[in-house]
């Protein structure tokens, strides 16, 4: 009965966040036009041809914060503890720098500095990766590897890294929003199954806030989430997963959010490898991401986005299955299978392809 009540509360929170986001997005669009947060296509990497407002992330942020605070006031399952407050302050810093970037396109180093500051705020509030459970690398019975002094830099690295992976896949209408919503729901299912009810509710709120924005963002998009949204969603997924899933004493718990966020994480990893193979700066944009390759194979924008939704669902489902793995051996087998399929797919899609190889095709 208690679990059923939690599930009902989570569904209500999801619906509230979805409604608020849906109602606020048109106002975010007006604000974007007023302050000049407009995406004007200037190169062939842009899929759109007309200027599009890009401040939709403001509606997502407001929907998340409002709903989370309301649920904290009316439900005992979410408490205004230091970790929760730290996450709210941190994401506010991210949104502020995102708004500035959506208007003025600031330097990457300033965005990185703001992300590190936000991550440090969260870490100081108590959100840290204190240990990882890797029995295969540890002979102790528990299998815990306590990070000690490394917990702070590793947590900051995780938060900043995940924050940027969502931003890097924001290349097609509805892609980042849909994939993020699916990842949030997958992690919420894991948190619910492992008794992390407050974390599950927060993730459902994030999923609802993102889903409420999606009708305006799906192809043809009326508004983009911009850095304001992509960075905020990535930050929230990173910090909430640390506070809930990764801290849970389960075998290979760190692998669960990696699988749930598999599309942005793997795509970013392959992009870094591809750029190194091409002797390009790893932060230099290119047209070699998975969605670009699918478009090259003849899929439309909508078909490409739906295909990536399917891949995200499969990886999210793998994360849920992993959280319920009956043994360490079955967990290792599942991870090995998923990694093999991901690598095989990446090779088939040419995600490691060198530029000279592409030119010959």
The total beta strand count reads 4
Helix content: 55-70%
Task: Find the structural class using helix and strand composition.
Answer: mainly alpha
- Which regions contain 5 or more consecutive residues with pLDDT less than 50? 356-361
Membrane topology: Multi-pass membrane protein
Pfam families: Glycos_transf_4 (PF00953)
Cofactor: Mg(2+)
InterPro entries: Glycosyl_transferase_4, PNAcMuramoyl-5peptid_Trfase_CS
Describe the protein.
One of its GO terms (molecular function) is metal ion binding. It holds the Pfam family Glycos_transf_4. Keywords: Cell membrane, Magnesium, Membrane, Metal-binding, Transferase, Transmembrane, Transmembrane helix. The protein is mostly helical. It has one domain. Helices cover about 70% and strands about 5% of the residues. It contains 14 helices and 4 strands. The protein has helices spanning about 1-35, 55-75, 80-105, 110-125, 150-170, 175-195, 195-215, 225-245, 255-260, 260-275, 290-295, 300-325, 330-350, 355-360, and strands at about 40, 50-55, 130-135, 145. The strands form 2 sheets. The chain has a two-stranded antiparallel ribbon with strand order 1-2. A two-stranded antiparallel ribbon has the order 3-4. It is globular.
């Amino acid at each position: 009965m208690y679990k059923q009540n939690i599930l009902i509360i989570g569904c209500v929170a999801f619906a509230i966040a979805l409604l608020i986001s849906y109602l606020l997005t048109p106002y975010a669009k007006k604000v974007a036009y007023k302050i000049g947060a407009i995406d004007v296509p200037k190169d062939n990497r842009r899929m759109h041809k007309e200027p599009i407002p890009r401040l939709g992330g403001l509606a997502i942020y407001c929907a998340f914060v409002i709903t989370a605070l309301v649920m904290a006031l009316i439900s005992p399952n979410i408490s205004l503890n230091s970790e929760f407050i730290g996450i709210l302050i941190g994401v506010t810093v991210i949104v502020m720098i995102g708004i500035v970037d959506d208007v003025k396109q600031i330097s990457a180093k300033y965005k990185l500095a703001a992300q590190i500051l936000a991550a440090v705020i969260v870490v100081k509030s108590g959100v840290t990766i204190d240990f990882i459970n890797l029995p295969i690398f540890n002979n102790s019975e528990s299998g815990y590897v306590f990070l000690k002094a490394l917990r702070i830099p590793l947590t900051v690295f995780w938060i900043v890294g995940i924050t940027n992976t969502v931003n890097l896949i924001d290349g097609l209408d509805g892609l980042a929003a849909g994939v993020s919503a699916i990842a949030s729901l997958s992690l919420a299912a894991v948190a619910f199954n492992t008794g992390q009810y407050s974390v599950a509710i927060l993730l459902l709120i994030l999923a609802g806030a993102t889903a409420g924005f999606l009708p305006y963002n799906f192809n043809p998009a009326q508004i983009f989430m911009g850095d304001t949204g992509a960075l905020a969603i990535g930050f929230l997924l990173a910090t909430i997963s640390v506070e809930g899933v990764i801290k849970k004493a389960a075998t290979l718990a760190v692998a669960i959010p990696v699988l749930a966020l598999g599309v942005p994480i793997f795509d970013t990893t392959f992009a870094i490898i591809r750029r190194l193979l091409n002797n390009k700066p790893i932060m230099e944009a290119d047209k070699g991401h998975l969605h670009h390759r699918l478009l090259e194979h003849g899929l439309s924008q909508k078909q490409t986005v739906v295909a990536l939704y399917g891949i995200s669902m499969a990886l999210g489902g793998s994360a849920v299955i992993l959280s319920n793995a009956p043994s360490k051996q079955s967990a290792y087998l599942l991870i090995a299978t998923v990694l093999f399929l991901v690598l095989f797919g990446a090779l088939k899609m040419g995600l490691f392809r060198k530029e000279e190889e592409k030119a010959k095709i």
